[in-house]
Amino acid sequence: MNVGAGNYTVSGSGGTGALSYSWARIGGDVINISSTTAQTVSWSASIPKNTSKSATFRCTVTDTAGQSAFHDVTVYLDYFTDF
After folding, report:
1. Domain range 2-11+18-79, CATH architecture
2. Are 56 and 76 a contacting pair, CB within 8 Å?
3. What Gene3D superfamilies does the record point to (predicted)?
4. Quick count: other Cβ atoms within 10 Å of Cβ 55?
5. Per-residue pLDDT at 36
6. What is the mean pLDDT of each run of 10 residues along the chain (83 residues)?
7. Domain-by-domain residue ranges, the chain?
């Protein structure tokens, strides 16, 4: 999945009991994430004019029985202007 800047929701289904979320940057540029344990996150970065950054984050969802699954998300942030 490739996404731009903004807020995104990861939803788990199935499993046993409550779900916990863990986000980790696994590659790419330094991009800030609003929370490493929230279901809904947003991204930000300091980006010089006319450049872009990208990073891949892994979201791992774990249930109370210890079963887990993950999905990788690549985030692209751009700052381009016509001026």
Report:
1. Sandwich (2.60)
2. no
3. Immunoglobulins
4. 20
5. 93
6. 59 74 94 88 83 91 91 85 63
7. 2-11+18-79
